[in-house]
Please model this.
Amino acid sequence: MTDTAPRPTLEAVAARAGVSRATVSRVVNGGDGVREPLVERVRRAVEELGYVPNQAARSLVTRRHDAVAVVIAEPEARVFADPFFALQLRGISKELTAHDNQLVLLLTEGRDDHARVARYLAGGHVDGALVFSLHLDDPLPGLIQGAGVPTVFGGRPGWSDGRAAATGPTVYVDSDNRGGARDAVRHLASLGRTRIAHITGPLDQTSAADRLDGYRDVMGDADPGLVAESDFTPAGGERAMRALLDRRPDLDALFAANDLTAAGALRVLRERGLRVPEDVAVVGFDDMLPVAEQADPPLTTVRQDIEEMGRLMARLLLRRLDRPGGGTGPRATDEDGTPAAPAGPDDAGAGVVLPTTLVRRASA
Model:
């Protein structure tokens, strides 16, 4: 066994810097009222001694834990199999790391986990929560509201009553799902395709419902037989594609609600001996590069910046936490054009909606 060197204390830093313990505490905990020369002396002493603040003690002073919960309302198997979640988590992690915050990942395998998540959030372990992949009947928003934790949602919330939680208004980050879907279907129509089918995502999620609305904006009163509901997975795309071909073997184009669905559909089209894009043109949604570029043929798709969505979610939450009152200040826009987290009941439902772009490849 080897002896462990004692950790440097606040008193040791104060002695090295030649200041009081209270001055060191204010500098370490981000307090005001310390002259810049003293701040520099304290920071130099901290670096020389390798002092690491005690997080528990720091939290008593700042009332911050420097930790954010990321709540994904999906089973573990789905989260780790779908690259969408990896991209969004990467954006969140980058932003939190840049601000010296920890990411605490919470998954909901089933309804029994919702109460566990709510208890954890209410227990004061984190400063706020980032929540995404909600379904319309999901109790999590209400439970989180009851926990009193400032929250930013990924995706437009499905409720329409303009609710605002006790911790502030509903703030979210989303992509222009409806506009992107319109672009996808218009592109297929511009190729001369007239029997354009659509495989949806789960329609209890607003992203899937918005993409179906975008499809209908262009197709109008299209044959309902050209629409098949699925679940954003490759296996779901396979099942839906088989059902579509069984009832409408004459379809000549497909808009799939995401790239994974499109990948499953492409496999079925090959099984049926149909050429892409000669017989059936295919467009997806997301532009997840490992999926879209490696598809056979490479997939034309609607690009949304998934990583940027995650980064913005984290940024809006941290900005809200940094404001006096934890998000009750006036609405503002940063110098870089990013909207600040909305504040006040009149801003309920406000959010950031990112644009989408059509990326053309060989499938359409």
